[in-house]
Amino acid sequence: MLTETQKQIRDVARQFAQKELAPGAAERDRAVVFPEAALKAMGRLGLMGIMIDEAHGGAGADYVAFAQAVTEIAAADGACSTVMQVHNGLVCMGIARYASTAQKERFLVPLARGEALGCFCLTEPEAGSDAAAIRTTARRRGNHFVLNGAKQFITSGSSSDTAIVFAVTDPAAGKKGLTAFIVPTTTPGYQVARIEHTMGQRSTDHCHIVFEDCEVPADHMLGEEGEGLRIALSNLEGGRIGVAAQSLGMARAAYEAALRYARERRTFGKPIIEHQAVAFRLADMATALDAAELMTWRAATLRDAGAPCLKEASMAKLFASEAAERICNDAIQTLGGYGYLEDFPVERIYRDVRVCTIYEGTSDIQRLVISRQIAG
Ligand SMILES: CC(C)(COP(=O)(O)OP(=O)(O)OC[C@H]1O[C@@H](n2cnc3c(N)ncnc32)[C@H](O)[C@@H]1OP(=O)(O)O)[C@@H](O)C(=O)NCCC(=O)NCCSC(=O)CCS(=O)O
């Protein structure tokens, strides 16, 4: 059962998503337009700092509410939901959990109010799944650190105001030699080298970022020196609940489109939903959606209780993202040739959902994390 606050946040997100986001999603995808105004409006509604306490400009809610809101936004516009979930789940929560009081005042408050946007710079051209293999360096120079290196696939990399950046401060220390920094993207040396052309989620900017002698004050360090990998991985544990929720939202939208179509479209003298092949396909889609929702809810509930949920978050992400891809594929199959046209939303949703089995840890990485947990 959802609490009153969780229901309220879900309903605010649903109403906004259906009224303000859904009508323009196809056009934003076609024209490759970043949903800047929509994100600002989401900030005013409290959807950009859902889990941040009210004293720091947030809505003071929890992971269950976050998952509900992300699902609703994703059901209307997958691209927008990625920006929102990275901002909430990885950036705001990373700062909320590890920042000093002064850092929270300066960086978290505008982020949680939606007046500033955040990005999470971990992945590199040669360090994706193996997060500990990053090569970007941060060398101390007096009261500053100087960052050099490159980051890849950074969501909102060119639209963000604030980046959490992971870099090597002690190459000899291996996994204990990584450190996190809060970097304003206006800092000289933060360079957007390229915005990638992607299969889906085209209205978001997935960027290649280069750090060239990017100097940040030492007091921009997030957490302790050497704590970077732990911060990255614990953040990703929560972020994966967000990706599960996104997958769920996009899959629900595709399923609902397929169900509507199957009730209206007639072949051989009756609605196609009365053909068992179609009805059974829809039954499988509905069942997988329910399972994905329950797994996402379980992981979010555990996280809210402060209980370990590494396995459950990875399971939710793995199952929901793979189920979502199948559901979107089945939705296209149900619509037949029309499903392949841009005139119907399912082809866009299919493209948008594809990345959910890849980012914030591929399906293979989720299986690795789960298998380590069950091995004990
Ligand atoms: C594949 C991996 C799981 C391998 O991890 P490692 O074996 O290299 O790391 P560990 O030794 O397991 O852990 C290092 C350190 O961190 C602590 N840790 C690990 N997990 C957690 C957690 N959930 N909470 C808290 N602490 C944690 C662990 O105890 C160790 O600390 P100590 O040494 O004990 O002190 C890993 O590399 C991995 O998950 N890879 C996937 C990376 C990934 O998901 N990348 C995606 C990047 S973000 C993105 O794609 C989207 C961003 S966006 O859209 O712009």
UniProtKB/TrEMBL annotation:
Domain Acyl-CoA oxidase/dehydrogenase middle: 119-214
Reactions catalysed: 3-sulfinopropanoyl-CoA + H2O = propanoyl-CoA + sulfite + H(+)
Superkingdom field: Bacteria
A single MF term (Gene Ontology): flavin adenine dinucleotide binding
Domain Acyl-CoA dehydrogenase/oxidase C-terminal: 226-374
Alphabetic keyword roster: FAD, Flavoprotein, Oxidoreductase
Name assigned to this protein: 3-sulfinopropanoyl-CoA desulfinase
Short name of one Pfam family: Acyl-CoA_dh_M
Alphabetized SUPFAM superfamilies for the sequence: Acyl-CoA dehydrogenase C-terminal domain-like, Acyl-CoA dehydrogenase NM domain-like
Lineage, broadest ranks: Bacteria, Pseudomonadati, Pseudomonadota, Alphaproteobacteria, Hyphomicrobiales
Alphabetical list of Gene3D superfamilies matching this protein: Acyl-CoA dehydrogenase/oxidase, N-terminal domain, Butyryl-CoA Dehydrogenase, subunit A, domain 2, Butyryl-CoA Dehydrogenase, subunit A, domain 3
Domain Acyl-CoA dehydrogenase/oxidase N-terminal: 3-115
EC number from the UniProt entry: 1.3.8.10, 3.13.1.4
Stated family: Belongs to the acyl-CoA dehydrogenase family.
Listed cofactors: FAD
Family annotation (InterPro entries): Acyl-CoA_DH_CS (IPR006089), Acyl-CoA_Oxase/DH_mid-dom (IPR006091), Acyl-CoA_Oxase/DH_mid-dom_sf (IPR046373), AcylCo_DH-like_C (IPR036250), AcylCo_DH/oxidase_C (IPR009075), AcylCoA_DH/ox_N (IPR013786), AcylCoA_DH/ox_N_sf (IPR037069), AcylCoA_DH/oxidase_NM_dom_sf (IPR009100)
